[in-house]
Amino acid sequence: MFVLENGDFAILGKNITEKIIKDAVEKLRKGLITDPVWTAKSSSEFTRLYQPEEFDEFYKKIESMISEADKYKENIFRNSVDAGQIDAVKEHLDMVNFVDAVKHQGVIRLENSSNYRRLFDEYFVAVKDLNQNFDKNIDLAGNKWLFLYLTQSLDKKTMASFEVADIKNRTGKISLNLNLSTINTLEFINFEQYIKGQGQSIIIEVQPIDMLNNMRTFVNVKERLHKAGHDILLDATSIEMLQTLNIKSLGFDYVKLFWHDLMEEYNPESEDIKKLFEEIGVNKIILAKCLGENAVRWGIKNGIRSFQGPYIDKLEVAMIQKHCPNGKRCTPNDCLKRKKMISGYFRDMCDYKEILDRNLG
Fold this sequence. Notes:
Layout lengths: L1 E2 L5 E2 L7 H14 L4 H5 L14 H25 L6 H10 L2 H4 E11 L2 E11 L1 H8 L9 H18 L11 E5 L8 H12 L3 E6 L1 H6 L1 H13 L3 E7 L1 H6 L2 H4 L3 E5 L12 H10 L4 E4 L4 H9 L4 E2 L2 H14 L8 H9 L4 H4 L4 H5 L4
Parallel strand pairs: 4-5, 5-6, 6-7, 7-8, 8-9, 9-10
Antiparallel strand pairs: 1-2, 3-4, 3-10
Helix pairs in contact: 4-7, 15-16
């Protein structure tokens, strides 16, 4: 057995079968089910069985992995934003046209097997776009703690972009992922007044770490939002997290449960899962990051009716192209890109923007 520099194991031996490897991986998966590395990829990506006659291919694979590891190290140490660059980044953000960087993604609710409605739209900053505008060699999100500091500026810029956004035909609820501290700023008050003037209300998506680190602020923000007729959503949760937190007592209006393939191991008939969802309120649960039909089917089996993610985007685009007179002239990718934008030249190239925003369920 050889341990590579990137932490991988290369095992040479006799009588190593695919079943032996599969069983070993399954044991690891069950022991590391909460690790985001396992939830982000299929377990098949972590193993590869080579036969003796494939040794040349195996050797080339090792060389390729070493090369990729060197590139990864280079990115980690060279490309992550550091404290000395923060002022420059903030100055750059002041010059960026945030309308081009803000995107939105719908959350839909299945009413029945052939009909849905858009529950709300989530608006967010595409950090990759900011990277391209600022410096392609710097990863703004590479340093977690400095990026959290930058999000305070991002919050304000995102809210300001709505003054020129085309949202009049969108759903009645606007969702943003904001820091709790942002809710008490003048910028949020101005944003709130603008949204109300459009006849819409706000959903604030809260990160679990922000809530747990600022529980007193969270309680005050929740009361303030509810009093103003807005909603609050707990973002980025897992089943394990929902089993730990007393969600009902925290008073959330919505809870986003992030999908990963390992969730299929939870029995849909499980009384524990059923009881957990009932205690939270299954109508409050949104199954997010749905990559395929299997995620939606799992959600439906467990009583969930609200969904978000790339698979949902594809369903909406298919419906848009079905109703749009130019549906056959645009590619699905172009249609999706225009749909996600709130303004800008590329969106304006669409001759039927009202269809992009219409609830076509």
